Amino acid sequence: MERKRQYIGPVDTSTTSPIHRPAPAFIQLETKLSIFETGIKVVDLLAPYRRGGKIGLFGGAGVGKTVLIMELINDIAKAHGGVSVFGGVGERTREGNDLYMETKESGVINEKNIAESKVALVYGQMNEPPGARTRVGLTALTMAEYFRDVNEQDVLLFIDNIFRFVQAGSEVSALSGRMPSAVGYQPTLSTEMGSLQERITSTKEGSITSIQAVYVPAPTTVLSRGLAAKRYLSSTILGLDELSEEDRLTVARARKIERFLSQPFFVAEVFTGSPGKYVGLAETISRFQLILSGELDSLPEQAFYLFSR
């Protein structure tokens, strides 16, 4: 804190907010539904985010959860001028440093005028005590509530990783000598998670849209009785030569749609070699309709890969 005080000036502590607080009353809630445009084609077209809703990003380590979060922060700040709050709960220090450097280079964090910055970062890396890691998620949520209730803004709240929040709570429970539940988690899990999630909502002043990464700690094998009943055997899938002309056309359009949904990210320009692109929802739908209607059947599927113009 002393280094930060010397770097950006004195910190105003005249007004504080508790991190443990009740959820907004029912009469304060906003019930009107609207879509939150992200500028990412595959999200806006196939799995749109509801303004004021909660979105989970499920996946194992290294599949791109943090990269997607970094891209969303960049897009929302630049395209909408919106505010984002990032809570790094129990993740690696390297990822937090990468996010800070990326947001600083892109201008989302304005070091010359902190008031013009569009993101607030709260970190509690995995080597911190469990009590500190538990409070990171609540601290980030309290910051988001300030932007919503006081500044009357629409806020994006990112929690990476919500599983680590539960894990930290489990460690605190074990240190407190509480009897664990049947699956090993703390007996107060539903209460702790419920008190966090209920505060993430839309009110008449603004909205908090939460995107939470959910780390899957082990690979999952799914055995489907339904697929077995249909005698679905991957080794016996017929090739394109065995399909009718109509089915071949359907497969060709599906492959073009799959490649069309690829998109160069701003935060991954150094890896893809392509400049990042924000694609509006209207443009995404119109391009998708062109492929589906067959107007672009003459183009090869390679022409749609990372195509965002």
From TrEMBL:
- The chain positions of domain AAA+ ATPase read 51-245
- This protein's source sits in the domain of life called Eukaryota
**Where does this one sit in the cell?**
Membrane
Which key words are in the record? ATP synthesis, ATP-binding, CF(1), Hydrogen ion transport, Ion transport, Membrane, Nucleotide-binding, Thylakoid, Translocase, Transport
Gene3D superfamilies for this protein: 3.40.50.12240, Bovine Mitochondrial F1-atpase, Atp Synthase Beta Chain, Chain D, domain 3
List its EC numbers: 7.1.2.2
- Choose any GO biological process term that the UniProt entry carries and state it: proton motive force-driven mitochondrial ATP synthesis
Q: Which Pfam families match?
A: ATP-synt_ab, ATP-synt_VA_C
Q: What class of enzyme is it?
A: translocase
GO CC annotation, single: chloroplast thylakoid membrane
Q: Which family does it belong to?
A: Belongs to the ATPase alpha/beta chains family.
Say what the protein does.
Produces ATP from ADP in the presence of a proton gradient across the membrane. The catalytic sites are hosted primarily by the beta subunits.
Q: What protein am I looking at?
A: H(+)-transporting two-sector ATPase
